[in-house]
Specification:
The complex is a heterodimer.
Chain A (H helix, E strand, L loop, with lengths): L1 H19 L14 H7 L17 E2 L3 H25 L7 H25 L19 H22 L6 H25 L23 H8 L7 E2 L7
Parallel strand pairs in A: 1-2
Helix pairs in contact in A: 2-4, 3-4, 3-5, 4-6, 5-6
Chain B lengths: L2 H11 L3 H7 L2 H11 L4 H12 L5 H25 L10 H22 L24 H22 L9 H27 L18 H4 L6 E2 L2 E2 L8 H6 L7 H8 L5
Antiparallel strand pairs in B: 1-2
Helix pairs in contact in B: 2-6, 5-6, 5-7, 6-8, 7-8
Classes of the chains: A mainly alpha, B mainly alpha.
Chain lengths: 239, 264
């Protein structure tokens, strides 16, 4: 355990180095925690739940609760990669307070990502390759705008996936994470438009005071442009 | 197409349909319906409202009335604060006005879902029997009570999600989650305000370990093991960061113990 933790830190800084030297290759790769940890939570991987990489390179998230956990793992990989990039190439004029907030959020997303990887063990999908070509990382507005989009999308994804989860323990885990994503979304919005209603704005919250909730198919379509690896949620539960 | 014929048909299988609809503003709905909606759209609209306005299982009724108690508390708290001259600085009012709006919407939504089974609004004492004696005259006290109520709300909803997993409760589970994350947004922005106003220097949008006051609101939030996996040292991150990354639930009893001093 000790060794793999060290490996993770090394890999994270390696990713930073690779990124800053211009290489995106293996950007998202992180060392595996011992899969024994994963066994504790996901007793035995059922054959039909096993995610598969198809010959075309498409990553299939799998089915059942494992599929939903892989879906969450994919989203957390995306978020973690985004904030690692944000802190590796800070936008012009990033204040100390903003750096602190963005560093906290980056660390939370890395923790979420590595937690899912550990929890899924051998059922985990591989590392996804992000595509942030459309994001200008030198621009404060563009970076914080993208951060808000990713956080709001995360909240909406977890809220929509809750009803698809069969095991109450996984539902609780999703609940423990989604509220942290909600906290992130509000903090980012507060950086963009301080002292306004934007932290839970009418652009996101509906007339019943409800946050977003969308099915995985919709979310995957929305995030695919930011991920080079093709992801399939075709086998995810729909009810 | 006669809407009342449709409703009386529904009433045969759901005796409380008129009460339910009453809570989702029947007058407003019917007065605007004839003018704005085609006959084709009406049944869809009614079906949609009924779908939203349903809690039938004992578990769901229990969870929703528990949630309603907290929403009543929050709703009245912000209404009183916003109508108290000189309490909230003008600069900060847009934040609390937005929170207040959501709490009012949550009350209406839950009352609509519960229909005749909704509890009556309790009588509140926002000083919590004197603990927060200056809650409506000292902005700092108000802001501290505000963040505590929001963080309690987040933990309360989280703790009840597992009680809404019955097939017929699935829509309610999603609505509860949709309220849950809004409460988290509220908590985050008020916590950031506690820092920027100097009330709780260093306060962040997220909960670090079990730090915070009142202590009962934050008790047990310093968990480092999730899903049976000990996350200590994960990715080289600190215990503080690991605890921040996961919000912990509170049991109904723990929440009621926190809320009790506020209820007369």
């Amino acid at each position: 355990m000790e060794k793999s933790q060290n490996d993770l830190s090394v890999v994270e800084s390696t990713a930073n180095v690779l990124q800053s030297s211009g290489s995106r290759r293996n950007f998202l790769r992180n060392a595996g925690l011992t899969t024994a940890a994963g066994v504790a939570i996901l007793a035995v991987g059922c054959k039909k739940d096993d995610p598969v990489v198809t010959p075309s390179g498409t990553v299939d998230l799998g089915s059942g609760d494992v599929g939903i956990l892989n879906y969450a793992y994919a989203l957390e990989q995306l978020e973690a990669a985004f904030y690692i990039q944000v802190l590796t190439t800070p936008y012009t004029g990033m204040s100390a307070a903003e750096t602190a907030v963005l560093t906290d959020i980056r660390d939370h997303e890395i923790i979420h990502r590595d937690f899912f990887k550990a929890a899924l063990g051998t059922n985990a999908i591989g590392a996804l390759e992000p595509n942030f070509a459309a994001i200008d990382f030198t621009s404060r507005d563009k970076v914080l705008g993208a951060a808000k989009l990713f956080e709001d999308t995360g909240v909406t994804a977890y809220n929509g996936a809750g009803k698809l989860i069969k095991d109450a323990n996984y539902l609780l885990l999703a609940g423990k994470i989604v509220s942290v994503e909600g906290r992130h979304a509000a903090a980012i919005a507060d950086l963009l438009k301080p002292m306004t209603a934007f932290f839970a704005g009418d652009d996101i919250i509906d007339g019943n005071g409800l946050d977003g909730a969308k099915m995985p198919s919709e979310i995957l379509t929305a995030v695919q442009p930011y991920i080079k690896t093709k992801i399939s949620g075709a086998n995810l539960p729909t009810s | 197409m006669n809407i009342f014929n449709i409703l009386s048909e529904i009433e045969k299988v759901d005796g409380e349909v008129f009460e339910r609809l009453d809570h989702v503003s029947r007058r407003g709905m019917f007065s605007s319906m004839g003018k704005k909606l085609s006959a084709v759209a009406v049944p869809t609209l009614v079906a949609g409202m009924l779908n939203k306005a349903y809690a039938t299982t004992p578990g769901a009724l229990d969870v929703l009335n528990f949630a309603l108690t907290l929403e009543f508390l929050e709703d009245e708290f912000y209404k009183k604060a916003l109508s108290t001259a000189g309490l909230i600085p003008d600069t900060d009012k847009p934040i609390f006005a937005q929170i207040s709006k959501h709490e009012t919407q949550h009350v209406a939504f839950l009352v609509g879902a519960l229909g005749a089974k909704a509890i009556a609004k309790p009588v509140f004492d926002f000083t919590a029997k004197g603990t927060f004696a200056d809650v409506f005259s000292n902005y700092k006290t108000f802001a501290i009570v505000s963040h505590a109520l929001e963080d309690t709300g987040v933990r309360a909803y989280k703790g009840q999600a597992g009680n809404l997993m019955a097939a017929e409760d699935k829509p309610l589970l999603q609505y509860a989650l949709q309220i849950h994350s809004v409460e988290a947004r509220h908590a985050s922005v008020v916590r950031r305000l506690l820092n920027s106003r100097g009330f709780v220097p260093g306060a962040k949008g997220w909960i670090t370990l079990a730090q915070g006051n009142p202590t009962a609101v934050y008790a047990g939030d310093d968990v480092l093991t999730q899903g049976g996996v000990n996350l200590t040292g994960l990715a080289g991150k600190s215990n503080e960061a690991i605890s921040e990354a996961f919000d912990e639930p509170l049991t109904k009893d723990a929440v009621l113990a926190i809320a009790k001093p506020f209820i007369v």
